[in-house]
From TrEMBL:
PANTHER family named in the record: BLL4564 PROTEIN, RIBD C-TERMINAL DOMAIN CONTAINING PROTEIN
Organism, as annotated: Catenuloplanes niger
Chain ranges of the Cupin type-2 domain: 72-132
This protein's name: Quercetin dioxygenase-like cupin family protein
Region (Disordered): 21-48
Polar residues compositional bias, start-end: 32-44
Keyword terms of this UniProt record: Dioxygenase, Oxidoreductase, Signal
Span of the signal peptide: 1-23
Lineage of the species this protein comes from: Bacteria, Bacillati, Actinomycetota, Actinomycetes, Micromonosporales
InterPro entries registered for this protein in UniProt: Cupin_2, HNL-like_cupin, RmlC-like_jellyroll, RmlC_Cupin_sf
The keyword Metal-binding is assigned to this record: no
Gene Ontology molecular functions: dioxygenase activity
Length: 173
């Protein structure tokens, strides 16, 4: 029985990798591209959306073929984003150090190198470095209707230190 199923599956797997009838013949001539690190931009995190010293190293912008952008974001100790949401969500891959993240109304959570954080669409949250550690994450941010993020108010020192009594503003802004 297993051999019969395998014999049926092999031709189907081969078809799955083959171009469909009438497929764009230009796909065969497309080539990989490499953007060298020295050609990528690095900017200071703007003061209206970040607290503390933050560097944003853009890896790639969102495009038609891949509707998400990529960047390394490095937070110095105590630095953090403002509260914000993403219309198409965001995935963070912590590559160095120790950080913090929090969803509106939820507990303060520690994140470490190797952790992966999923920020669902429309969920108010923030992220940044722990008080005594640099933290870098790769941010893969989805784009919907040409928008990647909606920035909100700054995270207060009380919120950063896990004191929810300061959470008096509404979840949206």
């Amino acid at each position: 029985m297993r051999r019969a199923l395998a014999a049926l599956a092999l031709p189907l797997l081969a078809l799955a990798g083959a171009p469909a009838a009438g497929a764009d013949r230009d796909d065969r001539s497309k080539k990989q591209t490499i953007t060298r690190s020295e050609d990528q931009t690095s900017t200071v995190g703007p003061l209206d959306t970040f607290t503390g010293e933050v560097r944003v190293d853009t890896l790639f912008p969102a495009g038609a073929a891949a509707p998400y952008s990529g960047a390394y974001v490095t937070f110095q100790p105590g630095a953090r984003s403002a509260w914000h949401t993403h219309p198409a969500g965001q995935r963070l891959v912590v590559t160095e150090g120790v950080g913090r993240t929090q969803q509106w109304g939820g507990p303060l959570r520690e994140i470490r190198a190797g952790d992966v954080v999923w920020c669902p669409p429309g969920v108010k949250h923030w992220h940044g470095a722990a008080p005594d550690s640099v933290m870098t994450h790769m941010a893969l941010t989805g784009v919907r209707d040409e928008r990647a993020v909606t920035w909100m108010e700054h995270v207060s020192d009380a919120q950063y230190h896990g004191h929810p009594a300061d959470d008096t503003s509404p979840p949206g802004r």
